């Protein structure tokens, strides 16, 4: 019997896990997935973990389970060296993995754009560990403010989906926490969402930007657009206008760049934000044995936004295309199918825009139905990872016994 082709997948996010799971179904491939975390989680839900409104159990799936279910090998570690000439990946734990094909799915991290003070004085939301750390800081700040009869001053920079949803989720956390509630939230919270551009949620129609800003104002977040942050310190943010915005808890959600770990791949072409440039078959432009998918990749001829939807479709595509390449044939080019976008502001409101030909009635949706669709997208992913029964069980648990943040009230 012919020997198997060794495929190493770096990163177990949406793109990496989808690719590893799909590729491992091919018995001619031996697939190893490498990730620093012992569990897979849905990165678009990090704002819920950060606010304490989503449980870890049931929503963080051990990679060992998915590896057993799908037939790949899991290594919990991080790469420290990649030798493209020798085709090896060296891990932090000392293991050296040989590969025939390397799939880089290392995701993205916050882009501070070199602005002074951001790294030292702000919190980020790139990983589950970041979310847990942010929740602890939020909890401590809420307790301290309430105990001392002061305001909980909080600032988020970035008016995209992450920043907007995080703002709403903090409000939801205060509303749902034992000993707090809407009345306490209105009295306690003094928060601001800062966006450099002229409106928040720029990927959505202007009506959504306007309505979401109004909703945030209603639940306790002041929205500042056209406000450029030029520095941060331990007291708050400094704007280009000269204004200082005081806030005890500072969160940066204003942009992303490819994960720093991609720097291990010397000599490969990159985009402006560090993404690896790839061909329409998702092979890096200067090494056909190295593939890049998800947030850390860029098709220069047709750039795509760093979203879970893109990542999932690229992972699915690679599951079909890579075996064809190994067999010596040329697969069709990756084709992205935009199935719409949805954003949810906690329990308060939501908006979605969809192609009329792709379901949900098409056009622009808002309110409860948009929020249901938003959760449905996550549950669909969860069902693919854990199985339909577990996903349904977790959905029912959230309905009848939802997570209740512990803010020490």
TrEMBL record:
Keywords: FAD, Flavoprotein, Oxidoreductase
Transmembrane segments: none
Keyword Secreted set for record: no
GO annotation, biological process: aerobic electron transport chain
Cofactor: FAD
SUPFAM superfamilies for the chain: FAD/NAD(P)-binding domain
Single Gene Ontology MF annotation: NAD(P)H dehydrogenase (quinone) activity
Residue span(s) of domain FAD/NAD(P)-binding: 6-315
Stored InterPro entries: FAD/NAD-bd_sf, FAD/NAD-binding_dom, NADH-Q_oxidoreductase
One protein family per Pfam: Pyr_redox_2
Family: Belongs to the NADH dehydrogenase family.
The protein's name in its UniProt record: NAD(P)/FAD-dependent oxidoreductase
């Amino acid at each position: 019997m012919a020997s198997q082709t060794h495929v190493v997948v770096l990163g177990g996010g949406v793109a990496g896990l989808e690719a590893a799971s799909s590729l491992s179904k091919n018995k001619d491939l031996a697939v190893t997935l490498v990730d620093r975390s012992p569990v897979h989680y849905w990165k678009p839900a990090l704002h819920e973990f950060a606010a304490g409104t989503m449980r870890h159990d049931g929503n963080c799936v051990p990679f060992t389970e998915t590896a057993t279910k799908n037939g790949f090998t899991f290594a919990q570690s991080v790469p420290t060296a990649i030798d493209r000439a020798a085709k090896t990946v060296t891990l932090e734990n000392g293991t050296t993995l040989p590969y025939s094909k390397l799939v880089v799915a290392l995701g993205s991290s916050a882009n501070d754009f070199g602005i002074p003070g951001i790294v030292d004085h702000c919190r980020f939301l790139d990983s589950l560990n970041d979310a847990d750390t942010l929740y602890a800081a939020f909890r401590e700040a809420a307790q301290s403010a309430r105990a001392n009869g002061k305001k909980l001053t909080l600032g988020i920079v970035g008016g995209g989906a992450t920043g907007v949803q995080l703002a709403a989720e903090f409000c939801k956390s205060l509303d749902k926490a034992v000993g707090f509630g809407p009345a306490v939230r209105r009295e306690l919270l003094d928060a601001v969402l800062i966006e450099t551009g002229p409106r928040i949620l720029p990927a959505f129609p202007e009506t959504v930007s306007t309505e979401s800003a109004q909703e945030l104002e209603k639940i306790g977040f002041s929205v500042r657009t056209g406000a450029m942050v030029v520095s941060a310190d331990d007291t708050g943010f400094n704007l280009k206008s000269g204004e200082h915005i005081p806030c005890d808890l500072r969160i940066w959600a204003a942009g992303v760049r490819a994960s720093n770990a991609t720097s291990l791949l010397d000599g490969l072409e990159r985009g402006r934000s560090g993404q690896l440039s790839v061909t329409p078959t998702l092979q890096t432009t200067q090494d056909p044995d190295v593939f890049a998918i998800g947030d850390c990749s860029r098709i220069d001829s047709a750039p795509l936004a760093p979203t879970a939807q893109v990542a999932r479709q690229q992972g699915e595509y690679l599951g079909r295309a890579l075996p064809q390449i190994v067999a010596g044939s040329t697969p069709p080019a990756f084709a992205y199918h935009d199935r719409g976008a949805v954003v949810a502001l906690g329990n308060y409101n939501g908006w979605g825009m969809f192609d009329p030909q792709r379901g949900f009635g098409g056009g622009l949706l808002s309110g409860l139905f948009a929020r249901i669709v938003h959760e449905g997208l996550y549950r669909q992913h969860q069902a693919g990872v854990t199985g339909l029964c577990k996903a349904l069980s977790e959905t029912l648990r959230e309905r009848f016994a939802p997570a209740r943040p512990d803010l020490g009230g």
